[in-house]
Amino acid sequence: MTFYSTIGKNMILPQDVLIQSKETQEIPGAINATIGMATENGKVMKLNSLEYIIKNISSESYLPYSPTPGTLNIRQQWKDKILKENKNLRQEYLSQSIATTGITQGIDIVANLFSEKGDALILPNLFWQNYAQIYNVKLGVSIHTYDQFNNENKYNLEAFKNTLYSIKENKIHILLNFPNNPTGYTPSKEEFKSITEIIENFLVENENKSVILLCDDAYFGLFFEDNNKNSTINCLEKLVNNENCLIIKIDGVTKEYYAWGLRLGFITYYIKDDVLRNEIMAKTQGYIRSSTSSGSTIAQIAIQKLLSENKYILEKETNDNIIKNRYIALKESIEKENLESLTRILPFNSGYFFTIELPKKINAHEFRLMLLEKYKLGIYSMDESNIRIAFSCLEESYIPELVKNIKNCIIDFNNK
């Protein structure tokens, strides 16, 4: 006898990040580099103007329900923001944004509307584990992965192409998350051009197959190198002309506006066909109505007020530059310590994280424990080989010590 549905039987609560973060917190004086947030002086980063707005919102504004797709003002403001930041997009193809309860819900909504058992999902070999929960565990979608970087530590365009062309399923979901979690990589202009050409050729050669392009832009804007300041949807825009391709952008205030707990995300469709776009918009609202009904009014009102003024711009630039300076310090320390002579550091140029692929003789989980116990540094071991470090929550002054401790820990293992 069982009370569970098939989804209920398959569902789990992943414990890896939660357990590893908790273990770090239990070590007195340990530095926690597992956190997917930005911190400064031990506290979360914030926008002072947003804090002021939230403290002064009247109950008449935030207590009523918001409309199912979100308040009209915030939806239009977010669409305007996307158009301003993505000059290649055609305004008439871009839907009005629909508010969601965080980016995760946005991905879940899109997955439920467009994917099912018998579909395929393409992901890099290292990816945010919630993608598997949503697409595979809940919906039965087959996941096909490609090595994100080749032997020369370059973005692996050949592997991406081979994986795409090897898929037998007729409906293919391509999830592009840049800046990437966990690697912290965003493709260059030239790489995005190649990605676009690969998908374009596939669409033309396989008119019987449909491709859903999902741009997960959770870390949008945190670009640290000039040639990698690239928006996914802006680079892939021309694919909208293919009738067998659907382009979706999912983003939110979480990382862009240092507002993790507000849980406000957006779904925005880029579709040439007016009838199809309107139909999908209605179905998206119907799905929200059948699940959360509507999102947080106070989050929408607060961000609406924030975007209506310019006070936040300098504050956001200040915070973004703090993270960028940590990135620069990290690159300099890696070079100074010659860390790449001991291990493989996957390319990174954006976002919150960087990833190290440890030497084959070192188990990542054992390495994490030694690093924590001996050097009081908590990092996230993703599997047997790879560790992820969040530099977004590390003080710049500590970063040289971090790199040195990782180097020394590798040497400890090599001397065993």
UniProtKB/TrEMBL annotation:
NCBIfam families, A to Z: PRK08637.1
Entry protein name: Aminotransferase class I/II-fold pyridoxal phosphate-dependent enzyme
InterPro entries listed in its UniProt record: Aminotransferase_I/II_large, AspAT/PAT-like, PyrdxlP-dep_Trfase, PyrdxlP-dep_Trfase_major, PyrdxlP-dep_Trfase_small
Species assigned in the record: Gemelliphila palaticanis
Family classification: Belongs to the class-I pyridoxal-phosphate-dependent aminotransferase family.
PANTHER family: ASPARTATE AMINOTRANSFERASE (PTHR46383)
Signal sequence coordinates: none
Residue ranges of domain Aminotransferase class I/classII large in the record: 57-406
Keywords linked to the UniProt accession: Aminotransferase, Pyridoxal phosphate, Transferase
UniProt superkingdom: Bacteria
Cofactor(s) recorded in Swiss-Prot or TrEMBL: pyridoxal 5'-phosphate
GO molecular function, one term: transaminase activity
